# Entry
Amino acid sequence: MRYAISADGEEVATHFGRCEYYALIDVENGAVSGRERISSPGHSPGQLPRLRSARTCSDSSRTLRQ
# Structure
């Protein structure tokens, strides 16, 4: 499963759409199996859905795939 965490510096960001970057964390069998850091596309309409659809990420209700 892949999780996206919004971040500013080394802290979790309080606003997902206005963070500095996203930490993408892959978890398999209860352990972290991979990490990726991608820059935030900024805060404008439609940016986050396009970013999520370009990568495999999980939210609380569904898995989004490429």
Notes: Residues 60-66 have pLDDT under 50 and may be disordered. The helical segments are 47-54. The radius of gyration is 12 Å.
